[in-house]
Amino acid sequence: MELMYLSRFTLRHAKRSPTTTIALVAIIALGVAVLYSVRLANRAAVSGFQLFTQSLSGGGDLIVSTPSGKIPTSKLPELRRALGTLPVVMLPVVEATAALPGTGLDSDDFDAKQITLVGLDLMALRNLSNARGSSGVITLQTQDQADIQLGANDQVYLTQAAAELLSVDVGDPFNAIIGDQSRTLKVAAILIPGELDAGKKESVFLMDLPAVQRFTDQPNAVDRVDLFVPEGSARDQIMEHVLERLEQLDSQQWVWMRSDEQRQATQAMTAAFRMNLTILSGLSLIVGLYLILQALEAAVVRRRSEIGTLRALGFTPQWIQRMWLIESVLLGSIGSALGLLIGWLLAQGTVQAIARTVNALYMNTTATAARWDAQEATLAALMGIVVSLLAGWVPAKDAASTPPIQAIRQERLGTQKTHFNHTKWGLLLAAFAWLAHFLPPVELAVGNRFPLGGYLSALFALTGAAMLSGSLLRSAPILLSPFSALSAHLRIAAGQLKRLTGRHRLTVAGMVAAIGMAAGMDILIHSFEQTVTNWIGHTLKADLFVAVKGVENASNRNKMSEKTWKTLKNDPNVESADIGHIMPISFKGAPTFLVGMRSEREWDGNQFIWIEAPDRKINRSQPDPSGTYPALISESFSQRYALRSGDTLELPTPDGVKTLRVKGLFADYGNERGSLVVDSDLVCNWFNDRRALNFAATLKPGVNPEEVRNQWSKDYPGLTVRTNRALRAEVITIFNQTFAVTHALKAIGILVAIAGLALALFSLVMERRRELEVQREIGFSRRDIASSLTIEGLFMSLYGLLGGLIISIWLGYILVFVINKQSFGWTLAFGLPAGNLWLLSAGIIVASIVTCYSVGYWSSTLEADKEV
Amino acid sequence: MHRCFIATITTLIVSLNAWSQMNYTEDGYRIPTEFPTFTFPRDHGSHPDFRIEWWYITGHLHAENKDRYGFQATFFRYALKPNAAAGSDQFGDEHIYMAHMALSDIDQKAFYHEERLNRDGWDAFCSTERMEMQNGNWSLVQDAENQIELIATIQEEVQLNLTLDPAQPHVTFGENGLSKKGAETSACSWYITYPRLQIVGDIILNNKSIPVEGEAWMDHEISSSQLSKTQVGWDWLSVRFDDQTELMLYILRDEDGNPDPHSKLVWISVDGKLTHMGPDDFSWNVLRRWKSPNSQSNYPVETTLSGLRPDGSPYQLLIKPLFDEQELTGELGGIAYWEGACDILEKGKVVGEAYMELTGYNESLESQLR
Amino acid sequence: MNSETVAENIEIKKAQPNLLQVEHVCKAYGKQMILKDVSFSIQPGERVALMGPSGSGKSTLLNLLSGIDRPDSGTIMLSSNDLAQASATTLTHIRRHHISTIFQFFHLLPTLTAAENIEISMQIAGMPAPVRKERVAQLLEAVELTSHANALPDTLSGGESQRIAIARALAHRPKLILADEPTGSLDSKSGRKTLDLLKKLTEKHQIALFLVTHSPDAAASCDRTLNLHDGALV
Fold first, then answer.
1. Do residues B178 and B188 lie in contact, with contact meaning Cβ atoms separated by under 8 Å?
2. What share of chain B is helix, strand, coil (3-state, %, to 5)?
3. If you measure CA to CA, which chain B residue comes closest to A89?
């Protein structure tokens, strides 16, 4: 019976009206696709981190370092002593970055390809086979073992991905920029896939430890030590002992974690960012649900008379419902399958946007393609099918339980009065939104705060506004009615709006939410841009800025040698120079930056935007009688570690723990990890590292910066030399990259608003087929019908737009002053992007008109008695 | 003469090309000379101006329940450049330290072994003050009372905590204090040996701590080049007889399998007097071979040794491995060799404990060694 | 009687030009012939009933006359326009100015009041607002529903709804009203009243009526009756 029904009804419906069936399936597919693509992209960005950390650790069980991020080699025996006789293989690691040179001197090397250069003791590496047998170990298997040249400055081992990237083979030379030098390296071997966990996908250069130490001017230090515990029956027990011994290490001097924890730590670092993505995918879930619900409900509406007839023939409501469920599942499955495919394609684009953001903000992620993921696919497909089921079930239940004659007569649905008071709830939610924005942030990990209150406030505000706007829509016919006499189209539209259905409300609510988010995002970005532009004007005053290639990337480890920056400083064209000694350090378990500022320079308002200004006459290079050194902190730093002027902090350095007193607080939009500023000589001495991350030169009057730039670029191919103007332009580029992901969010918002509107209208005209026929009978042309519907749709759209814009101001406020402040620690000046908002409004209105008119024009040929 | 590692290092780094001149090799390493003047404990430590040096301990252990074990602990030093003693600020460009550790569980016929390879630096070093060396978590240290402490592990399965106490003073092999290994000037070594060390300690095997006692033999050899071009391998044997005398034998084999004239057999009397004998003074007969399933090498694991003692009395000793599977498979060095605990029988009666080393029995390796 | 002679007869009988002239109309859905060479005409002000059993092609014929569907062959001349060939714009124009339709289920626009339902057809036809206002009042009075002017369709009874539908059909002064079983869903009393009203008002305004019905009663209220059987007039 069921089969008969399926073949005679469902399939014949599909056959007779292929367009509608395709549209229905397409809408389900779109819903599934949106969800799947965002989730995939999210996953790809996160798995980018995982690949990265895995490839670096090479599969070590534990990772040991110091809070300052450097271990002097003289301290390494201490670690071995701490471990006693435990059979642990210790592998010191030095990490650096190799940048592949750009196309030429004048090319913008901002996108120079960054490759991680790992320095390992190529000889000790062999001992891993004791701990790991033959699997998962870098054994450097080459054709001939005699090829390994210990300490060689040019022999580099490439992962397969790196070899492919460079298109080189064993023995080939190639150039790479390490530190500030361009170096010619030679491919010693290409690692067999599987030797390095991520070797197939990850581009990594491997060299002998001393070579990389030399490249980085750090012959007596390593970045960390990877510990390997042998496999076998006693492994767990040994691991326990190892952990016990590590626990006993002085935590001021050593930091350690299990390598799986390191992955977690990396993830914790980006928790706030990933939370944003999760919220984005949550939104896409709601969007998907909304689209599918609209689409399937429309399908049920189309066939109400058929349901009525079946009822009249004596089929039970339960039987009819079951049929609908089967049909819904069928449609849902086909739509989902298609959606996964589309979603996967969409994800390829989205992931680029997300990866760019991650690169600019956090570290180098290699996620450039979203990989198919069975788990996410299942989730998305399940969502598609379950929602189809629900969406089919609710209206089918409704239709099946209405008396047959009413169903046959196709009375309008959804006009019943509900007991739900939208206005009351809307106001209540608005009140909640107000209260929630006072909530303090949630501490995720040290230095990582999640602005729960801000997100709750945004959510409440959006839902509240969505509900209120539905109620507000009631005023539409009051506005329209006086003009009914002017045109039949207006009269028809006013008549429709007078009898609002749940669908009208839902559509406006969806538009309010989508437009609100898109516009709110715009306000945040605009506020940010204004603030940053102002900050740049304040801080970037030198004529030339010199940095090692690729240094803009958060994961870069290249630095300028002392010799290089001294030569530049002594250039006859240079009047004065600022040398940036910047150390990425770990403070209280969270990554941050220690910045050395040279002594001659005043700590004055010329260089900083003060939030709390320091006393200018401090002696910065000497400790006070109590042994504390003066320091400045950035706003993000203050926010992350809850420190203000006058507070002291204990900073672990390779030279021992130093006590610093905060003397001032300044605004810094350069990074969200925060900066701690002390005198540059102190930094260099404590870290025994005089290399510089960057160099800013003020030229003598009359010297043409372009000429000096060209000269320096030629003399130092490993350096990027930028003029003031070029650097400003680049800061803006970085800024835009940082916000790449928000643009994706914005686009999705607008897409949803319009798609929701189109679907709502589609369902509405399906319900109104008879009315439309009557309109035609009394002389309405296709254009008349389309115009009436356009007026109706445009009014929904206008209410949605208005509501959305109003709520976007609140969202913008929350984003700027609560979410952004709490998660990044930046104070921004609020700014309304009038131009953008006008553009957004105009875009929404034009898109609405086009969409409504198209649906109306298409619907005007619908015949009441025929299935479409 | 346990010295397969030379070949290992050779294949790893550079080819040996040691034409000797006077007291230095062509590439600048010192060559041992006659009549050395040692000062101890300094000369139990490292001699970085020589290219090759090793400390080699083999011994038998007995548990309270009569279970027997054999062990081998070897620490090698190989200089990467001459005058390495001058020091360097770069990590690991002066010496490479290799180490082998093995335990033979006689009753279970189980053989545990591990190899290490580390560069000079923070996790491996040798002292030039005394016998004090480390390679990862393995260490060998002699204290002021001449007691030697060995701490080592093998994979995650075995741990050795042994204290070795000299029961006899050390001896120096070779004519005039120089042990010649070939016709070339450089083919010689200083060869300092503790022939009998009393052991007390415990081994931890599969999470079980077993108190043990026993005796061991320890060689310390210093040279810059040991091999002659014509030599393809060697057999080495150390015996501690129950009557408190000892015997050391090395047979250097040429391409045809014949003993090189520089092969030596040395008797050590109870009062430490040495008697050196050449290859014409003894005969070495293979009774049984064992083919390693791992390296395919065909080792002469059971042999007889016969000749005349220093007092002129004839002897015929049977060297009988406690079990066959005592091959170090050469995971890191790439060269497999047999180093096993043996009993010494005379007229069907056990008269002493021995360790035997057999190298160069793999066809392909033979060609590499040449 | 074959169709040719019918056509000739009509031509001879009529002195003044026909309002509607249907000639040799055929219509098939797939292989099934629904209408076979149908020809007839209606003069201005004439009331014609069309009777026939279910499936005889009544509804198809009505759809052709209202311009919703087109014949496979033949011509349908209305006010010098051939509906079989007319463009969508012409058809819309004809529906706005020359014909009206009354349905079995009234088909009032549910979102508009009774008065607005009447007004909307005049509005779309482009009549000025004051004229519309006056005419709505007249028509409501004519169908005796002045008191229900602001009622929404779902509050009206079947008879009342049909009277509003008649008023709407008359509003823009069409030349021809097509009525599809206008009493089909009404009780006999309301049906009677509806027929009387329809007759009275078409007579008064000289509007031709093409009434499709099952009911002999309804047919009797017309000037003449056409019988359709298996797609042909008999």
1. yes
2. 5, 55, 40
3. B136
Separation CA A619–CA B77 (nearest Å): 53
- As a whole number, mean pLDDT of residues A168-172 equals 85
DSSP state of B280: G
Place of tokens 């090692």: A548
Task: Give the number of other Cβ atoms within 10 Å of residue B293's Cβ.
Answer: 8
For residue A44, what pLDDT is reported? 59
pLDDT class of A105 with cuts at 50, 70, 90: very low
Rg (CA), chain C: 18
Mark yes or no for CB contact A484/C66 under 8 Å: no
**Highest-scoring range by mean pLDDT, A138-142, B16-20, B73-77:** B73-77
Say whether pLDDT at A382 is over 50: yes
Both tokens of residue A638?
A: 């203050």
Supply the pLDDT for residue A452. 81
Residue A496 in tokens: 């429709």
Q: For residues A22 and A243, is the Cβ–Cβ distance under 8 A? A: no
Span of A11-15, A132-136, B193-197 with lowest mean pLDDT: A132-136
- Asked if the Cβ–Cβ distance from A210 to B121 is below 8 Å, we say no
What ipTM does the predicted assembly reach?
0.85
Measured between beta carbons, the chain A residues lying within 8 angstroms of C105 are 409
Cα gap A754→A105, rounded to integer Å: 47
Asked if residue B150 has pLDDT above 70, the reply is: yes
**Residue by residue, what is the 3-state secondary structure of A498-559?**
HCCCHHHHHHHHHHHHHHHHHHHHHHHHHHHHHHHHHHHHHHCCCCEEEEECCCCCCCCCCC
Q: How large is the average pLDDT for residues A745-770?
A: 77
Q: Which tens digits make up the pLDDT trace of A464-488?
A: 887 788 788 888 888 888 888 788 8
- What's the pLDDT band for B170 if we cut at 50, 70, 90? very high
C60 close to A (CB below 8 A)? no
Which of B13, B91, B331 comes nearest A129 by C-beta?
B331
Question: How far apart are the C-alpha atoms of B352 and B287, rounded to whole Å?
Answer: 19
Angle between helices A271-302 and A374-401 (to 10 degrees): 30
- The CA-atom distances, in angstroms, between A701 and each of A570, A575, A576, A578, A698 are 16, 8, 11, 17, 9
Contact B351, B344 (CB under 8 A): yes
Phi/psi zone of residue C32: left (φ > 0), alpha (ψ -120 to 50 degrees), beta? Answer: beta
Grade residue B358 by pLDDT with cuts at 50, 70 and 90.
very high
Q: In terms of CATH, what superfamily is C43-70+85-233?
A: P-loop containing nucleotide triphosphate hydrolases (3.40.50.300)
Residue A845 Cα, gap to closest chain C Cα (Å): 25
Is residue A830 within 8 A of residue A813, CB to CB? The reply is yes
User: Which chain A residues are closer than 8 Å to C69 by Cβ?
Assistant: none
CA-CA distance, A573 to A712, in Å (whole number)? 11
- Residue A593 in contact with residue A584, Cβ under 8 Å? yes
> To which residue do tokens 């041992």 refer?
B32
How many residue contacts between A and C have a Cβ separation below 8 Å? 70
Look at residue B345 and tell me whether its pLDDT is greater than 70: yes
For B258-311, the pLDDT digits (tens) are 888 899 999 999 999 999 999 999 999 999 999 999 888 899 999 999 999 999
Q: Beta partners for B52?
A: B78, B223
Instruction: Report whether C162 contacts C102 (CB < 8 A).
Output: yes
Domain segments of chain C: what residues? Answer: 43-70+85-233
Q: Looking at domain B4-369, which CATH architecture does it have?
A: Beta Barrel (2.40)
Scanning B223-361, the segments in alpha helix (DSSP H) are none
Any idea where the domains of chain A sit in the sequence? 1-59+267-411, 67-253, 475-541+728-868, 550-717
What lies within 8 Å, CB to CB, of B214 at 6+ separation is B59, B60, B61, B62, B69, B199
Higher pLDDT, B171 or A59: B171
Phi and psi torsions of A682, nearest 5°: -65, -45
> DSSP secondary-structure letter at C215?
-
C135 touches chain A (CB under 8 A): no
